[in-house]
Specification:
203 residues, 4-stranded antiparallel sheet, 0% helix
Protein backbone atom coordinates (compact mmCIF):
# COMPACT_ATOMS: atom_id res chain seq x y z
CA UNK A 1 0.00 0.00 0.00
CA UNK A 2 3.04 2.25 -0.52
CA UNK A 3 3.31 3.06 3.20
CA UNK A 4 -0.11 4.68 3.49
CA UNK A 5 -3.43 3.40 4.82
CA UNK A 6 -6.94 4.43 3.80
CA UNK A 7 -8.95 5.71 6.79
CA UNK A 8 -12.40 7.18 7.45
CA UNK A 9 -13.22 10.19 9.61
CA UNK A 10 -16.52 12.06 9.98
CA UNK A 11 -17.92 10.11 7.03
CA UNK A 12 -15.10 11.05 4.66
CA UNK A 13 -12.09 9.08 3.42
CA UNK A 14 -8.44 10.08 3.55
CA UNK A 15 -5.05 8.50 4.16
CA UNK A 16 -2.67 8.27 7.08
CA UNK A 17 0.97 7.17 7.30
CA UNK A 18 2.43 4.60 9.68
CA UNK A 19 2.77 7.27 12.39
CA UNK A 20 -0.94 8.05 12.14
CA UNK A 21 -0.35 11.44 10.53
CA UNK A 22 -2.88 12.57 7.91
CA UNK A 23 -1.18 12.58 4.51
CA UNK A 24 -4.29 12.83 2.30
CA UNK A 25 -7.06 15.03 3.74
CA UNK A 26 -10.38 13.45 4.72
CA UNK A 27 -12.36 14.97 1.86
CA UNK A 28 -13.38 12.01 -0.32
CA UNK A 29 -16.56 9.93 -0.44
CA UNK A 30 -14.47 6.86 -1.28
CA UNK A 31 -10.76 6.25 -1.70
CA UNK A 32 -8.67 3.25 -2.80
CA UNK A 33 -5.05 2.34 -2.16
CA UNK A 34 -2.29 3.55 -4.46
CA UNK A 35 -1.42 1.61 -7.60
CA UNK A 36 1.37 2.76 -9.87
CA UNK A 37 1.55 6.04 -7.94
CA UNK A 38 -2.14 6.96 -8.25
CA UNK A 39 -5.19 6.34 -6.08
CA UNK A 40 -8.79 6.15 -7.29
CA UNK A 41 -11.08 8.55 -5.40
CA UNK A 42 -14.77 9.49 -5.62
CA UNK A 43 -16.43 12.81 -4.90
CA UNK A 44 -20.02 13.85 -5.61
CA UNK A 45 -20.63 10.64 -7.51
CA UNK A 46 -17.69 11.08 -9.90
CA UNK A 47 -14.33 9.32 -9.98
CA UNK A 48 -10.84 10.72 -10.48
CA UNK A 49 -7.27 9.96 -9.42
CA UNK A 50 -4.92 11.66 -7.00
CA UNK A 51 -1.20 11.42 -6.27
CA UNK A 52 0.50 10.94 -2.89
CA UNK A 53 0.35 14.66 -2.14
CA UNK A 54 -3.43 14.68 -2.64
CA UNK A 55 -3.16 16.58 -5.92
CA UNK A 56 -5.85 15.72 -8.47
CA UNK A 57 -4.05 14.19 -11.45
CA UNK A 58 -7.10 12.96 -13.36
CA UNK A 59 -10.22 15.14 -12.93
CA UNK A 60 -13.36 13.84 -11.25
CA UNK A 61 -15.34 13.35 -14.45
CA UNK A 62 -15.76 9.60 -14.74
CA UNK A 63 -18.66 7.37 -13.64
CA UNK A 64 -16.11 4.75 -12.55
CA UNK A 65 -12.34 4.20 -12.67
CA UNK A 66 -10.44 1.02 -11.81
CA UNK A 67 -6.86 0.74 -10.54
CA UNK A 68 -4.07 1.23 -13.06
CA UNK A 69 -2.31 -1.82 -14.42
CA UNK A 70 0.80 -1.19 -16.54
CA UNK A 71 -0.30 2.33 -17.41
CA UNK A 72 -3.94 1.65 -18.34
CA UNK A 73 -7.14 1.68 -16.29
CA UNK A 74 -10.75 0.82 -17.03
CA UNK A 75 -12.91 3.96 -16.98
CA UNK A 76 -16.63 4.50 -17.43
CA UNK A 77 -18.01 7.62 -19.07
CA UNK A 78 -21.51 8.33 -20.36
CA UNK A 79 -22.56 4.79 -19.48
CA UNK A 80 -19.82 3.05 -21.50
CA UNK A 81 -16.42 1.60 -20.61
CA UNK A 82 -13.02 2.32 -22.14
CA UNK A 83 -9.41 2.63 -21.00
CA UNK A 84 -7.50 5.72 -19.91
CA UNK A 85 -3.80 6.46 -19.55
CA UNK A 86 -2.21 8.32 -16.63
CA UNK A 87 -2.99 11.64 -18.29
CA UNK A 88 -6.69 10.78 -18.11
CA UNK A 89 -6.94 10.42 -21.88
CA UNK A 90 -9.23 7.74 -23.30
CA UNK A 91 -6.69 5.76 -25.32
CA UNK A 92 -9.30 3.05 -25.95
CA UNK A 93 -12.67 4.67 -26.61
CA UNK A 94 -15.51 4.19 -24.13
CA UNK A 95 -17.65 1.98 -26.39
CA UNK A 96 -18.01 -1.18 -24.29
CA UNK A 97 -20.93 -2.23 -22.07
CA UNK A 98 -18.49 -3.66 -19.52
CA UNK A 99 -14.75 -4.29 -19.25
CA UNK A 100 -12.19 -6.06 -17.06
CA UNK A 101 -8.78 -4.59 -16.27
CA UNK A 102 -5.91 -5.39 -18.62
CA UNK A 103 -3.96 -8.55 -17.86
CA UNK A 104 -1.11 -9.97 -19.90
CA UNK A 105 -1.72 -7.19 -22.42
CA UNK A 106 -5.37 -8.05 -23.00
CA UNK A 107 -8.80 -7.35 -21.50
CA UNK A 108 -12.19 -9.01 -21.64
CA UNK A 109 -14.91 -6.59 -22.83
CA UNK A 110 -18.66 -6.84 -23.38
CA UNK A 111 -20.55 -5.64 -26.44
CA UNK A 112 -24.30 -6.29 -26.84
CA UNK A 113 -24.28 -8.96 -24.10
CA UNK A 114 -21.40 -10.88 -25.72
CA UNK A 115 -17.80 -10.98 -24.51
CA UNK A 116 -14.56 -10.79 -26.45
CA UNK A 117 -10.89 -10.02 -25.85
CA UNK A 118 -9.04 -6.85 -26.91
CA UNK A 119 -5.36 -5.93 -26.93
CA UNK A 120 -3.77 -2.70 -25.62
CA UNK A 121 -4.61 -0.98 -28.91
CA UNK A 122 -8.31 -1.74 -28.46
CA UNK A 123 -8.35 -4.26 -31.31
CA UNK A 124 -10.32 -7.47 -30.91
CA UNK A 125 -8.12 -10.56 -30.85
CA UNK A 126 -11.13 -12.70 -29.85
CA UNK A 127 -14.39 -11.40 -31.31
CA UNK A 128 -17.31 -10.76 -28.90
CA UNK A 129 -19.20 -14.02 -29.29
CA UNK A 130 -19.29 -15.52 -25.79
CA UNK A 131 -21.80 -15.45 -22.92
CA UNK A 132 -18.98 -15.11 -20.40
CA UNK A 133 -15.24 -14.64 -20.65
CA UNK A 134 -12.41 -14.39 -18.16
CA UNK A 135 -9.26 -12.34 -18.47
CA UNK A 136 -6.19 -13.87 -20.02
CA UNK A 137 -4.20 -15.43 -17.18
CA UNK A 138 -1.12 -17.59 -17.64
CA UNK A 139 -2.00 -17.83 -21.33
CA UNK A 140 -5.47 -19.26 -20.71
CA UNK A 141 -8.90 -17.64 -20.80
CA UNK A 142 -12.13 -19.27 -19.63
CA UNK A 143 -15.18 -18.91 -21.87
CA UNK A 144 -18.81 -19.88 -21.69
CA UNK A 145 -21.50 -20.71 -24.22
CA UNK A 146 -24.87 -22.14 -23.24
CA UNK A 147 -23.89 -22.37 -19.57
CA UNK A 148 -20.86 -24.60 -20.10
CA UNK A 149 -17.31 -23.40 -19.51
CA UNK A 150 -14.04 -24.29 -21.17
CA UNK A 151 -10.66 -22.65 -21.76
CA UNK A 152 -8.91 -21.33 -24.86
CA UNK A 153 -5.58 -19.64 -25.51
CA UNK A 154 -4.81 -16.18 -26.92
CA UNK A 155 -5.38 -17.46 -30.46
CA UNK A 156 -8.84 -18.72 -29.55
CA UNK A 157 -7.75 -22.36 -29.79
CA UNK A 158 -9.75 -24.46 -27.32
CA UNK A 159 -7.36 -26.09 -24.85
CA UNK A 160 -9.94 -27.50 -22.45
CA UNK A 161 -13.33 -28.31 -23.94
CA UNK A 162 -16.60 -27.03 -22.48
CA UNK A 163 -17.47 -29.34 -19.62
CA UNK A 164 -17.62 -27.20 -16.48
CA UNK A 165 -20.61 -25.45 -14.91
CA UNK A 166 -18.34 -22.72 -13.48
CA UNK A 167 -14.71 -21.70 -14.02
CA UNK A 168 -12.09 -19.28 -12.73
CA UNK A 169 -8.74 -17.90 -13.90
CA UNK A 170 -5.64 -20.06 -13.81
CA UNK A 171 -3.22 -19.27 -10.98
CA UNK A 172 0.16 -20.98 -10.75
CA UNK A 173 -0.95 -23.58 -13.26
CA UNK A 174 -4.20 -24.49 -11.51
CA UNK A 175 -7.83 -23.38 -11.87
CA UNK A 176 -10.93 -23.82 -9.71
CA UNK A 177 -13.84 -25.27 -11.71
CA UNK A 178 -17.12 -26.95 -10.88
CA UNK A 179 -19.03 -29.97 -12.12
CA UNK A 180 -22.43 -31.19 -10.97
CA UNK A 181 -22.56 -28.54 -8.24
CA UNK A 182 -19.18 -29.39 -6.70
CA UNK A 183 -15.84 -27.62 -7.00
CA UNK A 184 -12.41 -29.07 -7.64
CA UNK A 185 -9.02 -28.05 -8.98
CA UNK A 186 -7.57 -28.82 -12.41
CA UNK A 187 -4.22 -28.25 -14.11
CA UNK A 188 -3.62 -26.86 -17.62
CA UNK A 189 -4.14 -30.34 -19.10
CA UNK A 190 -7.55 -30.67 -17.47
CA UNK A 191 -6.28 -33.27 -15.00
CA UNK A 192 -8.12 -33.16 -11.67
CA UNK A 193 -5.67 -32.34 -8.87
CA UNK A 194 -8.29 -31.81 -6.15
CA UNK A 195 -11.44 -33.92 -6.59
CA UNK A 196 -14.90 -32.46 -7.22
CA UNK A 197 -16.39 -32.84 -3.75
CA UNK A 198 -16.41 -29.33 -2.27
CA UNK A 199 -19.31 -26.90 -2.14
CA UNK A 200 -16.81 -24.03 -2.17
CA UNK A 201 -13.14 -23.67 -3.01
CA UNK A 202 -10.76 -20.69 -3.00
CA UNK A 203 -7.19 -20.23 -4.17
Amino acid sequence: HEGLAVAKKNGKMGMINKAGKTTIPFTYDSLENFHEGLAVARNNGKYGLIDKTGKTIIPFEFDYVDDFNKGLAVAKKNGKYGFINKAGELVIDAIFDDAFRMNEGHAAVEVDEKWGLINRSGEFVINPAYDDLGNLNEGFCYFSEEDLYGYFDIKGIVRLKQQYSDADDFEKGKAIVSKNGYYGLIDVFGTTTIPFKYSRLKH
